[in-house]
Amino acid sequence: MLTTSEKPKKSKDNTRKRCLMKLISYTKSHTFHVAKVIQAPLRFVYDWCTDYRETDPQITGSKSKRRILLRANNRVIYTVTYRRGKQVKMAVDVVTLYPPKAWHLNFIGDEDDEQGDYVLTALGPLRTRLDMTFTEHYKILHAPSKLRDTEQVHEVWDKYIAALEKSYLRSR
């Protein structure tokens, strides 16, 4: 038989378990890979992709605001501000450059943290493959699925690649 002094302990254990279950349900992580072929030489692709500008979100039609804080030979740091409903959200992006064919992203945000690795491979003198691997760690309830994140990366990068290829054609 339980004594009165044992009941609060059991209640504390249940409360602790409920809190842990809430924490677990608010945390969702996944890793995914996307590859794209670009009709431009590797060096042009690398330079274009790593020339971070405050106007880059306009390429994809995003309403987010980007502010460049640091641009150095091997690092770019910028903030991204966006709205989710009536709330303003923010993230900091730290990009480490590995010329001439790779870069790494660390994204720390209000809703999620992300790591991204980008690697370019020449497929010939005028074609380049971009391999991207992302690990998402969400801090929100109802986080997007791995499939939705993959679809969104495809949508965004299709727009970037169209702008990149157009820029390359203009430069010729």
Unreliably modeled segments: none
Strands of the largest sheet, in order across it?
1-7-6-5-4-3-2
Tell me what the CATH architecture is. 2-Layer Sandwich
Q: Major sheet, described briefly? A: 7 strands, antiparallel
- The overall pLDDT, averaged over residues, is 90
Order of helices and strands: HEHHEEEEEEH
User: Structural class from helices and strands?
Assistant: alpha+beta
Number of helices: 4
Provide the number of structural domains. Answer: 1
Topology, number of strands:
7
Q: What is the straight-line distance between the termini?
A: 86 Å
Explain what you see.
The structure is a single chain. This protein is of the alpha+beta class. Helix content is 34%, strand content 42%. It contains four helices and seven strands. The protein has a seven-stranded antiparallel β-sheet, covered by helices on one side. The longest helix is centred in the last third of the chain and has 26 residues, at 146-171. The mean pLDDT is 90.
